[in-house]
Write a structure and sequence with these properties.
- The structure is a homodimer of 213-residue chains.
- Chain A is built from 8 helices and 3 strands; from the N terminus they run αβαααββαααα.
- The first copy, chain A, is mainly α and 213 residues long.
- The first copy, chain A, has a 3-stranded antiparallel beta sheet with strand order 1-3-2.
- Chain A is elongated and about 70 Å long.
- The C terminus of chain A is likely disordered.
- Chains A and B meet through α6, α7 and α8 of A and α6, α7 and α8 of B.
- Chain A binds a DNA duplex (30 and 30 nucleotides) through α2, α4 and β3.
- Chains A, B: This is PadR family transcriptional regulator.
- Chains A, B: InterPro entries: Metal_resp_DNA-bind_regulator (IPR052509), Tscrpt_reg_PadR_N (IPR005149), WH-like_DNA-bd_sf (IPR036388), WH_DNA-bd_sf (IPR036390).
- Chains A, B: Pfam families: PadR (PF03551).
Chain lengths: 213, 213
DNA sequence: CCCTCGCTAGTCAAACTTGACTACAGGCTC
DNA sequence: GAGCCTGTAGTCAAGTTTGACTAGCGAGGG
């Protein structure tokens, strides 16, 4: 799974109703054009595709108020909301090497109830441990990695990365269980998008991490 | 960058001359269909594309000896070799979140001279530290991550991951400097492909890590 | 008043990826 | 000896991603 659908669904959902450029701006605001690789083309494509699949509802709108071609506004459907949560849960639970999906998922985690977030993260640690075990079982011979030569370094790297991920996940679980942050079932929801006309403080040509791709 | 070009160039290079199915088999042997996402379509596409770009030279060959359509054999060109090393060096040096590229690069690292491998890995640690610093500088306000709410967890995760990566890289550097493994400028090169007709011990329907994508 | 510049909003072709499909040969069974 | 399975070798359409491009409007300068 790439992170784009999750990001776009999440952005549209926060707005209630949004056109492509607004979504694009949110992603830029979130820095997602850097840590994910969300280019305009992908965003517009995702919007159209998801509209075709019934995840979004497209309203044809007159030429924009501020120059440029006519724009389409999108609204998330019930089906789209389901898909959003499906993607979010999947992203939180599965251990793969796509950092952008994980980043997006953490950004949206407060859309879930606190208890579910914790449960999903615990499932995540479980899966990481299973993956770790299967690396050792399937790839590493009984005599250890010595016989593999430098290829053993790959398994070494995988195990090291998995351990680090598991450790981070457990830390996050502790903080959430300890009462940190505000989740979907509790008070004021977190608002992470730019209102119409609001200025993006990060829109300048500033350097950001992730530029080094 | 995706890992496919690096993997395909590396496989063809080891064989001297190889047809698509052979490359495909090597990648399966390496488990790359699991930890990278190298599907047949991508492999054949990469071969054709790189042949068009002059990185590989294509020999049209008569119908195969063992059924199936006629096959094309590829040989790496000088330009392709240059590109291979360019990709390999880039993969070793740059810190991004694509685990498959890193895995492929570690697998091919012994194609470089030992001293260069160490230099590249040191550059890698440097870049990781720079990235880490720029996360803190650009994304985290002076008062710390507290004001960011749960979004602060993203930066926390990035820093944690970066530290873990840097630590692993330093460990690898130590082992290589300590004389481990056999590099390009030293003795027998490592052979990591299946000879024509050799059986792939991993070709069974066995489970492997990475299946959980 | 015209010209350029930057912002808004989005399109497009080319490249790449995915998953399913084709087609042929040999061997095995019934 | 017909049907069927496995292994070999690769194609194809559909979906996705990329990077460059278009086009309208308003502000500001000369």
């Amino acid at each position: 799974m790439s992170a784009i659908r999750l990001l776009v669904l999440g952005a549209v959902r926060m707005h209630g109703r949004a056109h492509g450029y607004q979504v694009r701006n949110d992603l830029e605001y979130w820095g997602a054009h850097e840590w994910s690789h969300a280019k305009p083309g992908s965003i517009y494509h995702a919007l159209k595709q998801m509209a075709k699949q019934g995840l979004l509802h497209a309203h044809e709108i007159a030429p924009s108020t501020a120059g440029g071609p006519p724009r389409t506004e999108y609204e998330i459907t019930e089906q789209g909301t389901e898909e959003y949560f499906r993607l979010l849960r999947e992203a939180l639970v599965t251990y793969d090497q796509h950092g952008d999906v994980k980043t997006a998922a953490v950004g949206f985690i407060v859309d879930l109830p606190r208890a579910e977030a914790v449960a999903l993260l615990k499932e995540r640690t479980l899966r990481i441990e299973q993956w770790r075990a299967s690396v050792l079982k399937d790839y590493v011979p009984e005599e250890g990695t010595a016989g593999l030569g430098h290829i053993g370094e790959i398994m070494n790297m995988w195990v090291h990365t998995a351990d680090s991920e598991a450790e981070w996940t457990r830390g996050l679980i502790r903080r959430i269980e300890g009462g940190a942050y505000t989740f979907a079932d509790e008070g004021e929801p977190f608002v992470g998008v730019l209102a119409e006309g609001e200025e993006n403080p990060y829109a300048t040509g500033e350097r950001h991490p992730g530029d080094a791709h």
